[in-house]
Amino acid sequence: MTEALAPKTVLIAGATGYLGRHLTAEYARRGWRVRALVRRDTDLPAELIHAEATRPETLTGCMEGVDLVISALGITRQTDGLTYRDVDYQANVNLLEEALRAGVGRFAYIHVLNADRMADVPLVAAKSAFVDRLRASPIASTVIAPSGYFSDMGDFLSMAQAGRAWLFGDGQHRLNPIHGADLATATAEAIEAGRDWLDVGGPEVFTHEALARLAFEALDRPARITRLPDALRRIALRLLPWVTPARIHGPAQFFLTAMGGDMVGECHGTKRLADHFLTLSANSERMTQ
Description:
Blueprint: E1 9-13, H1 18-29, E2 33-38, E3 47-50, E4 68-71, H2 84-102, E5 106-110, H3 122-136, E6 140-146, H4 154-162, E7 165-168, E8 174-175, H5 180-192, E9 197-201, E10 206-207, H6 208-219, E11 225-228, H7 230-243, H8 246-258, E12 266-267, H9 273-288
Parallel strand pairs: 1-2, 1-4, 2-3, 4-5, 5-6, 6-9, 7-11, 9-12
Antiparallel strand pairs: 8-10
Helix pairs in contact: 1-5, 2-3, 4-6, 6-9, 7-8
């Protein structure tokens, strides 16, 4: 009688974030033994590993017996005095070095689509620097570059709830945002296939104008859209670092830069943004009742 093979083990960094939770659930569903790197106790279907990736001494031994590391680790707002370079670059380097010491088979990293177009954005520059380090290392790697998350599209719904959507230029730049569950599945499939890079997005491609109209439709309101000259976006990019703190202008720089062009990745998944907007709208109504 053939002895059953033991399940493989994955360690997920950034497990408590939007995508990290979906990755944890996806690999648990696939029958993997899941370790989640966390700073405090949380309700994940995984073995919790308490460590701080910014402190490499806390990572010692956490990857023994691990077959795969997936890092969705990064910061969208600078807190605790940490910078993008501290987290998106150096903390991931610390994870990579521990993976190399432990003999992990593959390291996957969640990057951002069109990073080469956003080299002047500190958040993206830090991520790109780590990707360069990862791809130069001897470990097999997979880089996942998503176009944008459903969770980010809430900004369009917020504008619609306020009564007016503001767009730059003609509103015809395109993107295909992806739900976290669909992205987790696409990530697992790309890793299983041994892909070294995947530019990925959701199943539907929208213009910015179409996104705004979709948000108004979810609220059952007439669309009110104002188009601003794209020059205002470019001016804001130059001024933000001078007039706002890093925790404000960091994510704003990324958002405004991404809005200046298409963000369309390989289409994956089944979840529809319209359903997501309807869910957000219904939740918002319940909270105000």
